[in-house]
Predict the 3D structure of the following.
Amino acid sequence: MFKLKIKDKTTKARTGVFSTRKGDVLTPAFFPVATQGTVKGLTNLQLSEIGVQGYLANAYHLYLRPGLEVIKKIGGLGKFMGIDKPILTDSGGYQIFSLAQLRKVEDKGVEFRSHLDGDKVFLTPEDVIDIQIGLDSDIFVPLDECIKNPADYKKAAEATERTILWAKRTKDYFKTKKNIDNLLFGIIQGSTYNDLREKCLAEIDKLEVDGLCIGGLSVGESKKIRYNTLSYLTDLAKDKYLRYFMGYGKPEDIVEAVSLGVDLFDCVIPTRYARTGTAFTHQGEIVVRNSSFISDSAPIDSECSCYSCKNFSRAYIRHLINAKEMLGVQLLAYHNIYWYINFMKKIRKAIEDNRFSKFKKDFLAKYRRSNF
């Protein structure tokens, strides 16, 4: 459950504590993505050293591989992964709906073909809850219908109505399950139409969920429209709800969303960028594999105190990346996740000290002046 601590005086930024059976999460927070039950390139020991508060895993992918029976036999997803931190499982709705030509949507549920072997699968909202109960993740996300932008109003309205219908069925089914202490979020859809967003939020609020997922943004719309929609939604949302922006984003996007009242983020960017030789610094992104770093003795980021920055030069990491040595990607992944987690700590401290507006202004001015 979410407890609001401090509201910034000049923006909608806020700090809070989200309590789960695996411990408290201080917000605003960032969860690394562990789609297949692992954060790519990093061990649990490293993630613990970094101070990761929780993880995002994907129920759809884990349901297909290795399958529920394997994970249940081990004792649930936490034991399967070897971690004791909160795990939020995405229903896989976005992945299913991104299949486009391989799926069929109706009120009863969604039919699709597995991206692994082409087998036909049909899932209802109730099935998705059963999958997450089998995984025994700490926070469940219901099945929803996510559509890409631009979307015409009729299509967006149909998807919103179906998302609401599925949310009600999910909650009804969830209530029939006894002796479980998992949490259930609700998803707010509605594309970029404020009236649809408002209706979806009002209906989800009636279900008394444990948190709000903001879905259907960052799927093709402009940043201006995205932020206007987000601001409208957070103005309406009650303070008691944690607000989770699904699958978002880059540092400059996160700091903007925090200023609009968002509490939780997840994204593959830190580890995905590491695999391309890209690192995050306080001056912006740098592509370490580039020739300009061939003899650069500086750390990745002079303002970072992570293991990678304290012990290795850009030149060495560049050499590893270009020689296709696994250690290069691992060192960059470590740095990027550390950088993100430390970034969120700085955001929380700025809000607590009532200087978030200045922090945001200074960060963006410095970050956007990157010459790399």
Q: What stands out?
A: The chain has two domains: 2-267, 278-358. Residues 278-358 form one domain. The radius of gyration is 21 Å. The chain has a mean pLDDT of 95.
